[in-house]
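Journal club side-thread
Mid-discussion, someone asked how the predicted structure for our own chain would compare to the paper's figures. Pasting it here so we can look after the session.
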Amino acid sequence: MTSRQHRPQPEVREEGPATYASAGVDIAAGEAAVERIKEMVASTARPEVLGGVGGFGGAFSFDPARYDRPVLVASTDGVGTKALVAQAVGRYDTIGIDLVAMCVDDLVCVGAEPLFLLDYVAVGKLDPEQMEQLVAGVADGCRQAGCALLGGEMAEHAGAMGPGGFDIAGFALGAVDRDDMLGPEHVVAGDVLVGLASPGLRSNGYTLARHVLFERARRSLEEQAYEGAGHSLGDELLHPSVIYAPAVLAALGVAEVHAAAHVTGGGISQNLARALPPRCDAVVDRSGFETPRIFSEIQRLGDVDDVEMARVFNLGIGMLLVVAPGSVDEALGALEGAGCRASVAGRVVEGAGRVRLEA
């Protein structure tokens, strides 16, 4: 057996000096992107915001005098594999709304008013137009939520993801008076579940949805979402999340709300369980709310059982409030007045912290 002697390969030199741009990071594109988003960020400012875009940190003049015992509440989230749908469709102007919803609607489950949000966008190759669309969605979401887009970061990760690829995350801060905090400790048997309608998937369950629709059913984004839909599957899957925080805050102002559950990853079952004390069960009445057609399409095409559907998807309810029985009418009126469709979706009974769904 003969040995093979290592022979050094001739050194290959590229023409010209190495630059950050030739390595895959375009500083000029980043500067152009910042110029494009300045006005959008400024449009979200609250009176407490100090300074503008471009500093090393966002400054917010928090006024603790608004509260007897102020509590700061923080949350962070992303949009998951819904980002892959946006990339495939080539439309990025709504995914930022989803990001804001995922963050601020967690805050309001504690009773907190969203104050500001920071975003982080990572891309494979920085495209100022794509970045403008992404941040436009975030700014739109912040205006809907009433919070400031206080700052953010754009990161170009050449080699980590390809051109057009991106990921986006958010970090939100809110405030609530300690005596007004919501939580399972306030929930008692006899409370009523009020469901806030979601017209689509929001940002949850997309891994299963994509597996069923594209890998198993071989559907395309361009075809009709379902018979009679009048819009494409891509449009259906990119439907932006409803931002519930302002409507929930309106309900908190007039009704006795004990707890809230943001229906995200884990579906109705797991998220509502987080709002229950060990001594109570929640009985969700599915006849009390409408389940959008896209869910039945996913269930049919994937042969997904009812338990799995409830464990993964919101089934048409993006937020659940646990309300004292004497305050239901006030809560429903405030929610509807804030532009949020809502209905009675079940009840709280004695039990052991479990959630049951009834047809």
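Post-session note: The mean pLDDT is 92.
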